[in-house]
Amino acid sequence: PRFVFFHVIVNMRGTFSTLSAHMSGSGLSRVRLCVSLSRNHKDGLVRSCSSSSRTFASQSSSSTSSSTSGNTNTSSQHGQALGAKRPELFPKGIKVQKYRCETPEELLEVPPRVLALPHVAVAGRTNVGKSSLLNMLLRKDNLARASSVQNKTRSVDFLCVNNQLVLTDLPGYPDRTHNKVWDEQLAELVDAYLSMSQGDDARFDLRAALFLFDIRWDVLLQDDAFAAFFRDRKIPMLLCLTKDDKVANHEYRSRRVDRIRSDLAWSGPHVHCSSDLSLANSRKGRKILQRYIGSFCLEADDQDEVRDILANAWGGGAKASADDEEGTRKARVEENERRRREAGDDVGGDDDKVKDDAFGIL
């Protein structure tokens, strides 16, 4: 047999690494390719290239091949949903243009670029960490102002990212049954935006929503009702568990995830998020979330294709019956209501209003 051996020394930026690959097929019994990359920041020229070869005719008519691919720095669970390599959406030096709408009428006056780009909404309970997540995603410190005051965000903010997509920062819903600011102003504003994002004559191209939830919190009736509100409108959702760095124990984190998914009757994938980028897991979570957003905006053409991406995530494990999911959700709402009443927190007729009205949005 005759073999082919290549040895290439290439100068590039970075550190020394070696890549070896083996292939066999018709015409070649085996090819061993060894590339030594000697990276040098001073120039990008090829220093030397030497090769010697011996080839022979293969006696087999069948062929097999193997290849190596670059490390995507993402969990294997999310691999099928994230697709192939795509242009960088969130590079350093990212350009963001911000447009603020405080009334439903102002939603009709947004610039054409906001209308032309695909949207991903960011929603969740007040103080869940939406501003911190947006700053982390966009590599900005004060683009979205974080605050411990409830309903600090009183507008729909459109963040146009590199003229490729729009991240829509929605006001946070309250953690109580009634909230004056929400009832009188914000509920109508959120409803107006979502109404303009649906139907054949939709004004905004809303692809999906990121549903943020603090991993330390228990699921309230308000959380369940708001998630159900998006489900009823057939808006694809990705669950983002925020403040992940605040939970140090892995077993406790796993129990919290199971409880949250059960209480929300969540069948789709979830992502762990944290604004502390000094942690490796936080950087990994950011990259996973960025790639999901890229799939929603650059690979999918509409909400149906986004639903397919989410349904096929985790090797198809996210697929579930809609009827079973709705039945589980209603059972969890009834259980939550029973536990609250046993604890002496009887909200009476307001419970039914929360379940059916979703804080005045529906």
Give a quick rundown of the structure:
The protein is an alpha/beta fold and 362 residues long.
List the helices and strands and how they pair.
Blueprint: E1 4-10, E2 17-25, E3 28-37, E4 46-53, H1 79-82, E5 96-101, H2 112-116, E6 118-124, H3 130-137, E7 156-161, E8 165-169, H4 180-195, E9 205-214, H5 221-232, E10 237-242, H6 250-263, E11 270-272, H7 280-299, H8 303-311, H9 322-342, H10 350-357
Parallel strand pairs: 1-3, 6-8, 6-9, 9-10, 10-11
Antiparallel strand pairs: 1-4, 2-3, 5-7, 7-8
Helix pairs in contact: 5-10
What's the Cα radius of gyration? Answer: 25 Å
Q: Numbering strands along the chain, what is their spatial order in the largest sheet?
A: 5-7-8-6-9-10-11
Structural class, please? alpha/beta
Distance between the termini: 74 Å
Q: Give the helix tally.
A: 10
Mean pLDDT reading:
73
The percentage of residues in β strands lies in 15-25%
* Model regions low in confidence, pLDDT < 50 over at least 5 residues: 1-75, 345-362
DSSP strand tally? 11
Mass-distribution shape? globular
Main beta sheet strand tally, sense and closure = 7 strands, mixed
Q: What series of H and E elements makes up the topology?
A: EEEEHEHEHEEHEHEHEHHHH
- Helix proportion of residues, in percent? 25-40%
